[in-house]
Automatic annotation (TrEMBL):
Superkingdom field: Bacteria
Organism, scientific name: Deinococcus rufus
Pfam short name (any one): DAO
Keyword Protein biosynthesis: no
Keyword line: Oxidoreductase
Taxonomic lineage from the root: Bacteria, Thermotogati, Deinococcota, Deinococci, Deinococcales
EC number(s) given by UniProt: 1.-.-.-
Protein's name according to its UniProt entry: NAD(P)/FAD-dependent oxidoreductase
Record GO terms (molecular function): oxidoreductase activity
InterPro entries: FAD-dep_OxRdtase (IPR006076), FAD/NAD-bd_sf (IPR036188)
All residue ranges annotated as the FAD dependent oxidoreductase domain in the record: 7-345
Length: 371
């Protein structure tokens, strides 16, 4: 054992870069292994929405704390990271969805995040491009947007980590072996490769989740917040079937970035035109003027999901030198900094309120044991 902790992080996306940064700030000598471009995988395929979510107490704690860490980091980010306030409006289509707003507001406020109830007239004043007849919503003004590939590159550069362009093909107790045969010695290995983590740790309970995104031409209808339907979890995440939901982000260029779709276990990057039409029809149902716009670019990305939609952050139960930081699904950009803080707490014993929640792989113990 050397006096300086030697750490290898597998994965140069947003989560891997955040982990490299926090390890380096605690004195570790860090190497990052990435086979593609830094931030070029799932990081580049996301909307960059920094959003507080309350699907579970653990998710609320992780996203809320991560937003605080993003706010601390913001003054250091380069302008090209395009970190900016957007706020989120969770849009209620009907009275049933509107009834869910008050408890959601209470949860956000308990987590220290501002959240404002909107009745139908207030929603129409804030976002006049939305169709008539919506019931109201919840405005979360503290949510943000960032261009994540630049933020990942910034954190990696700040860490001073050595970047090795290569593919990690095996782990052992003393390090990481690359496809070319090179062995990187390490006291600590952090597997943060998104869905690619399965190539090294096939026993992890991870699933591939494909999503579509579209960006419009300029002259899009004026939208002032990230808009997400309040039935997002109900309509897009309630089952394993292909699904879509209304999620639109305004861009400073006058364009709109439109999501979202969800397909499990489809590893290809091709467009599913039928699903894309469903996604756009859903968006037009909320923003009727979208029907007159052309698309400039359409692309897909692969998320990495766990059965309970929470990431896995913690030591591997059978490999003494291996920690896991993966399975963030669509929240990897938001929660990268919270993930890194939790990793530091586990490795160095530093304080973090996130330690009170179980993000460890052993919560899926039966799947791990029998994989």
């Amino acid at each position: 054992m050397t006096s300086v902790l030697r750490a290898v992080v597998v994965g140069g996306g947003m989560v891997g870069a955040a982990c490299a940064d926090v390890l380096a700030r605690h004195g570790a000598r860090v190497t990052v292994v990435e086979s593609g471009a830094v931030g070029g995988g799932a990081t580049a395929a996301g909307m960059g929405h920094l959003v507080v979510m309350d699907d579970s107490p653990a998710q609320l704690a992780l996203t809320a704390r991560s937003l605080e860490l993003w706010e601390d980091l913001a003054p250091s980010l380069p302008a090209s990271a395009e970190y900016r306030p957007s706020g989120t409006i969770w849009v209620a289509s009907d009275d049933e969805e509107l009834e869910a707003v008050a408890p959601k507001q209470a949860a956000y406020r308990e987590a220290g995040r501002e959240a404002d109830l909107l009745d139908a007239p207030a929603l129409a004043r804030l976002e006049p491009a939305l169709r008539d007849g919506l019931a109201g919503g919840l405005r979360v003004p503290g949510d943000r947007v960032v261009y994540a590939p630049v933020a990942a590159a910034f954190l990696l550069e700040r860490s001073g980590a050595a970047l090795i362009r290569g593919k990690a093909v095996a782990l052992d107790d003393s390090g990481v072996r690359l496809a070319g045969g090179q062995h990187l010695s390490a006291d600590l290995i952090v597997v943060a490769g998104g869905i690619g983590s399965l190539e090294l740790l096939p026993e992890l309970p991870l699933r591939q989740r494909k999503g579509h995104l579209l960006i419009t031409e300029r002259r899009a209808p004026s939208v002032h917040h990230q808009l997400v339907e309040l039935g997002y979890l109900k309509s897009a995440h309630a089952s394993d079937d292909d699904s879509v939901a209304f999620n639109v982000q305004p861009r400073p260029t006058g364009q709109l970035l439109i999501g979202s779709s969800r397909q499990f276990d489809q590893p290809d990057s091709g467009l599913d035109w039928a699903l894309l039409r469903r996604m756009l029809a859903r968006a037009r149902d909320f923003l009727p003027e979208l029907g007159d716009l052309a698309a400039l670019r359409i692309w897909t990305g692969q998320r990495c999901a766990t059965p309970d939609h929470l990431p896995i952050v913690g030591p591997h139960p059978q490999r003494t030198t291996v920690f896991v930081a993966t399975g963030h699904e669509g929240l990897g950009i938001t929660t990268a900094l919270g993930t890194a803080e939790l990793l530091a707490a586990q490795v160095f014993g530093t304080p973090s309120a996130l330690s009170a929640f179980d993000f460890g792989v052993e919560r899926f113990r039966p799947e791990v044991a029998h994989a």
